[in-house]
Amino acid sequence: MASTSRARPTGDTPAPDAGTQRAAGPDADTLIVGAGLSGLTLTLALAEAGLSSVIVDRVDPRAAVAGRADIRTTAISLSSRRLFTVLGAWQAVADGTGPIHDIRVSDAGSSRYLHYDHSAVGDEPMGHIVDNGALKASLLARLVEHSDLVTFAEPGSAAALDVTAGRATLTLEDGRVLSAPLVVAADGRGSRVRALAGIRHTTVDYHQTAVVDTIAHAESHHNLAHERFLPGGPLALLPLQGNRSALVWTERTAVAERIAQLDDASFAAALEERFGDSLGRMTPVGPRRVYPLTLTLAESGIAERVALVGDAFHALHPIAGQGFNVGVRDIAVLAEVLADASRLGLDIGGAPVLRDYQRRRRFDIMTMVASTDGLTRLFSNDIAPVRSARRIGLSIVERVPAFKRAAIRHAMGTLGTLPRLLRGEPV
Ligand SMILES: Cc1cc2nc3c(=O)[nH]c(=O)nc-3n(C[C@H](O)[C@H](O)[C@H](O)COP(=O)(O)OP(=O)(O)OC[C@H]3O[C@@H](n4cnc5c(N)ncnc54)[C@H](O)[C@@H]3O)c2cc1C
Asked: Does residue 37 register a pLDDT over 60?
């Protein structure tokens, strides 16, 4: 082991066993590496179940939120919203979100479109557009209320992982050592913990980049989300509060880089040329950033005393606005299996518990990877037979109500057997 010194927590709460030697006992029930949306959400879900965590990120999550490090918005599905509500993190962001009542999917160059109406399956919006920074701030505020169970370690990055009987030990690059029965990798698509655990992954480079901005427009969006397929990639305009929409504009990387550099007037003109004038005059008002897009999929979601969640497990193309929602489903299942194991007095990092997590997540993840990857390839090209095939596909879904309802429920995350948090029940 590189060092036996303990991690020094930030904030007012001392780390469990602070100041003693590592051999005395684990630092917490879980070590969570990565304090992005996934890491913060999981930490809160576990705390609500009475499980303690030490969470470590290479940057201070509070400074990242204050510095607007993540300017993106996320389409939160109905089932994810239920989870955030039962965890007490939705209430603080709800008023700032934009509900999605309908979704319109169109193919450039065709007047036909597919229209999803939330009222086909009930009264609830299909989802809400939430500012990532606001959601992280709300999660952090809730974690402060659980300071007896949650410790923020000083920023640091994992350098080594050792598993011995009953315990996983993580050595950070600065020599600090943390240990727990279970380490959770929530450190994103380039996960270091995944590599340290010896889990291989596949990466597919789409050679596409998403340009993200906020757009003010003259006309109301009527809470309608637009997804328009262009040869370079999908262009999504997602309803925010008032006459504003979140833009996620995907293009081939070289084109996206040029678009991102345009001045506001030229950017608006290029956007109106591709999207049309249904929202009236458009003005970019947000910070603009680019996000290169890849598919990353871990070969396994578990290793000995290690579980992966969120983008560390599977990072998807944002074509369906589902990447984080799939991560929320990881979190809901992992929190449930860990809470149940703990209540039964079982080892929460033991192989049977982790295998249960993997088994319950496999089908959903493989379905989402296949569908987002397939959609990306189907819609990001202009070859005539492919163009015809996808237009036929859109019109079939448009005309068959059962297909449409299934697609709406899929987008809402309410299909299949759901873990308790996604049903809106405590973990
Ligand atoms: C343009 C775009 C639009 C999107 N829109 C949607 C949407 O509408 N709906 C949706 O559901 N999803 C969407 N997604 C996907 C969503 O943003 C991601 O799935 C989500 O942010 C993943 O969160 P995460 O916490 O798993 O990973 P990350 O956000 O990558 O967080 C990882 C954390 O780990 C930390 N970290 C990394 N390496 C280390 C290390 N070595 N040591 C310590 N800490 C480390 C990082 O600092 C970071 O805080 C979109 C993605 C993109 C690119």
From this structure: yes
Residue 213 lies in a domain: no
What's the one-letter identity of residue 173?
E
Q: Which protein residue has the closest C-alpha to ligand 1 atom 31?
A: 36
CATH classification at residue 49: 3.50.50.60
Report the alpha-carbon distance of residue 188 to residue 321 in Å, rounded. 17
Query: How many domains, the chain?
Result: 1
Which protein residue's CA is at the shortest distance from atom 40 of ligand 1?
A: 157
Q: What is the span of the domain harbouring residue 68?
A: 22-97+129-202+295-380+419-423
pLDDT at 294 over 90: yes
Q: For the whole model, what pTM was predicted? A: 0.91
Q: Residues 173-180: what's their mean pLDDT? A: 96
**Is 257 a member of any domain?**
no
**Pick from 426, 137, 192, 185: nearest CA to 327:** 185
CA distance 377 to 86: 37
pLDDT tens digits, one per residue of 44-62 = 999 999 999 999 999 999 9
Q: Is 323 in the pocket of ligand 1 (CB under 6 A)?
A: yes
Q: Write the residue with the smallest CA distance to atom 1 of ligand 1.
A: 210
For residue 5, what pLDDT is reported? 36
- 33 CB less than 6 Å from ligand 1? yes
